[in-house]
Amino acid sequence: MFGGGRWLQVALLGFAGYLMFQLNNVNALIRIFSRMVSCSYLVLMTMAFFLFEDIANSIISVLAIAFYIFFFSIYQEGRAVGRIFYAFAILGTMSVIFVQTLYFVPIIWVLLFTNIMAGNVRMIVASLLGLILPYWFIAAYGVFSGNALLIVPHFEALLEFGPLADWQVVSRAEIFTLCFVALLSITGMIHFRLNNYKDKIRTRMLFEIFSVMNLCLMVFIALQPNLIEPLLTLLIVNTAPMIAHYIALTNTKVTNVSFYIIILITLGITIGNVWTLF
To answer: Of 10, 25, 121, 141, which one's alpha carbon is 20 to 30 angstroms from that of 252?
Structure first.
């Protein structure tokens, strides 16, 4: 990781870990004092070593966590138009890097009403303005550079789909990593569903957002595996709090054994992914 000119990716990983730490602290995702959310994120991202080949994945990760920080902060605050603007401006910036991010916007709007409970006309308008903010600058640059249609090819990618469920384009390392992260996500979902009565209503709502987004991401990956890298990056961002909740708040013989199994599998996949690249 520290060779091959990946220092910027390492810096972004550290910054993303700090943001995940803040996301946990501000929203009390774990009801006890624990660093497990940020630690889980750092371990899973390091495990998916191949994601560091493209710096775009590191940027997507940072932006996704920053989006959640702003998005969660407007819980039950229907007048927080400034923060929803910033949240969707971050989402719009992420779509500049990974245009398929825009597919998730309708889902996020639904979650704004159902889980964040801050949806209204003003918030939707503010979110739209934030979403198109980065494109205002790109369009202005295009006009001044004499290429007014600069942004058109970018949006055309939304209508371009690879072969459905064509897993031949995905390496074994990516498949093993994806399957393990998906398994951790499902484990976290089941655990939280069985134990969410112990958490506050706000925490339940936020974890439901992680669950919904992960289910959508897994379906998206299954249909378009050619986009596995950015989608896996987002899957890790959503999975880290969920598996952290499981690890930090369970203390039975079975779950204690599962913790060591998770550690061993993570270590094995990490070594395998590093070995594959080098």
So the answer is: 25
